User: What shape does this take?
Amino acid sequence: MADTTATLRTKIQTRRSTLNNQISKEMRMVEGAENLLKASTNRKTRETVALELTFHESNLERLQSQLAQLNSAVTIYQNDGNKETRVPMICLGLKETDAVDLAKPLERFIATHYYGNPDDYENQVMDLVTLRMAARNPQRSKDGLDLLESYVRQLYWVERRFFRNQKHNIIFQWYDSVQGMPTAQQSITFEKASVVFNIGVLHSQLASRQDRSTAGGVDCAIEEFEAASGTFIHLNEKFYNAPSPDMSPHVLQMLSTLMLAQAQECMFEKRSLDAEVLEGGVELAIELAQDTALVASLYEKAFDFMDDAHFRGYIPKSWANLSRAKDFHFRALSHYYAAAAHLDFADETGLADVDIADMRDQLHNMLETSVRSQMRPILSLQEQVERGVVHLQVSMMLHRDGQRILRNDPELKKLETLVQVFAQDEQMAVAKDVELREDPSIEIPQPITAVSEAPRIHGRAPRIAASTVIETSLTASEESEDFFKNLGPMSLFNSANDWNAPRMVQLTRNMQGFGFAIRGNAPVLICSVDKGSPAQVAGVLCDDVVVAVNGVETLWSTHAHIVELVKQSGETVHLQLATFTRVRRSNVLPPKEPSPTHPVSTVADAMQY
Assistant: This one.
């Protein structure tokens, strides 16, 4: 069954990719027809073009509708073990991207900017190309996450090596994850942001596929949803001027909130797995009322983002309807548990007056602050029962509202488990109501006519939060492997700096030595050149980088290593030097003071060159 599900997921991703390409083609056709319509003055030509434009706009709308329907198929990412017991969760499809020719531009840049031999970096370039190809369609697993994070970390180096202050004929085209609209940019920042977005998507898919019928599975789902939320927050904070709607601040905030809502729902599911929870006392009923109120508030917030006038047509309708239905459902549960807390406590006897007063304070304090200020505390058993009955009435009304949404949505009403769970929870409230009406000792108050008449319950402080795991993963970039490390230390050998081609100089020692001093580590630079010395005559400049000594590459060498190489040279030393055009240069500079991190060796030292 797992293999079948995985195959179906692959087919859906393939279908999504095909639709993205078709949408891109139709968009080009629409753009071409619009331009021709503006440029043409011939009436017959304009009529023909207008007809073609209508045809392609119709095709574009049809394709986008098919993609939206595909994105609404939330069940495909769920775990088979959840189908009979758990409500499905919302997750996204991966952003698609086209193949990009990275090899030729990077090899050209290595030759023209770094004056290196592209053949020496053929393997590194292919490693990067292969990594990107794999990142286009990662596995739905931890290995897939590791792959995407490895690619983002590598882009940290690639950006500095090749893209900072540089323009290449490299176009990164990515498709919107919801509507499939293509966006193309030369910015590698856009490439990084799109991959980070897919990391969030993959976390949401991994969360949805967990078996939430076990405590361990629920814990994993919570962790993944928190990671998804944190990833979308990270993207919203670090990436500006989003070129596609799915990475706009509004949508990223919606996605982050939605993931937190689902994580909090999983937290409630975990509590419901404990049989003792279902048999708990009044305190526990109050906790459950506030827990479910928190879940409802998060879904309400997510729905408000989805229902925004600017994005209402963008977000899949089934997402908005499911979020709204869950808002009603969990608010209904919240009022059900509140009713249980009020009514079950009314049956308890043998409590001291101080215990009763304390319990009634707890019942009053679980309401929202604005409500508490307008309602007096519970002073009698009758008031307590009346308030409990009101909560129960509200619960049944909200359950009906949630189920009405399911019935009216063509996609959601097909989800049997969702419909069944909603119906079962409503039946709990109905059964409680029947029990009350059959109890002659309880006086049923006048029924309320609208949910707005009922006091809202205050959600407890959330015990879940957006995870910062993405921050940890991506801030480790500086410690990750740099494919192009052999180009030289990043501090100088990056795309923002310019320099002349490395040159060879031959120095022959005179009575005072070679006449230059060095400083630093990896890379080591020339810090001073003596006037009239062999170094000055040969054209050695201050701030030249020592690339090689006697044919030994020294870009990553320590100060001490280069000192040893020069001492071993005898009377003649061959230096390969690179001169940076951004560094102020002079043929004679005073020696700089030595320091532990940037040692300096001058003619005044015991080691003379």
